[in-house]
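Extended Data, record 3-dehydroshikimate dehydratase
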Amino acid sequence: MNIHVCTISFRHTLQSLEDIARWAAEQQFQGVELWGVHAAALESEKLPLVDLLGELGLTVPMISGYIPLDQTADTQQACSQLSQLAGAWQAEKVRTFAGAKSSQDLQPDERAYLTKQLRYMCGFFEQEGQKLLIETHPGTLADSLPSTLQLLQEVDHPNLWINFDALHVWESGADPVHAFQQLRNHTAHFHLKNISSQKQLSVFQPSNVYSPAGCRDGMVPLFDGALKYEHFLPHIPNGADVSLEWFGADVKGTLAMDSQKIKAFQHAYA
């Protein structure tokens, strides 16, 4: 698999993209997934940085941004901005979320409107030669396996893909292996992270995880948590794009260790 780092992991540290890229290359990562906020902030520096990434043998597999779905004009503007950023960074994929409301809390007319918006977005990015990914995530239309499968059917567009966040799938109560078997043909990227106990999953709520003073209790390296990645990793296809997310302290040390352990596990499993 192709293992990438997420710049969102460095959101509270003073690190330039050049520093992150040189470190990622030294640690033999394959690429750097750019948080949309970072990609936009680097607008004036993107050309030399794109060249640097290429020289280091790194790619930008995906721009991870946020597209509001409640107002058509806002949706169209955000699609245009993220598509331009993806083009500038030579990223093939754009990730967003399927709304900002749990599937259980949506009325039928609300779901129908969000489905229409997502279908528009799929066509927009398809015209630009880019894949649109929605992330399996609580508080969205992709917050459970049944709702995600239903959404794929409702949108009914070949350019709607899944960013399979294994922990959030597990959080929903689904078995990640079984869920991936159902979503395999629609999955274009993976996010991997872990937690020490299901009771501590609230630390990944946006209001906490984006706060510099937020709680980090329970965040653990990939192979030390409640989700048993040794059971899930063998099911990730060869050549798949995987991004490691880490929101705790010692970002470089943890990401490097997780990457090394994944590679050792793959070697042993092979």
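Summary. The CA atoms of residues 36 and 175 lie 30 Å apart.
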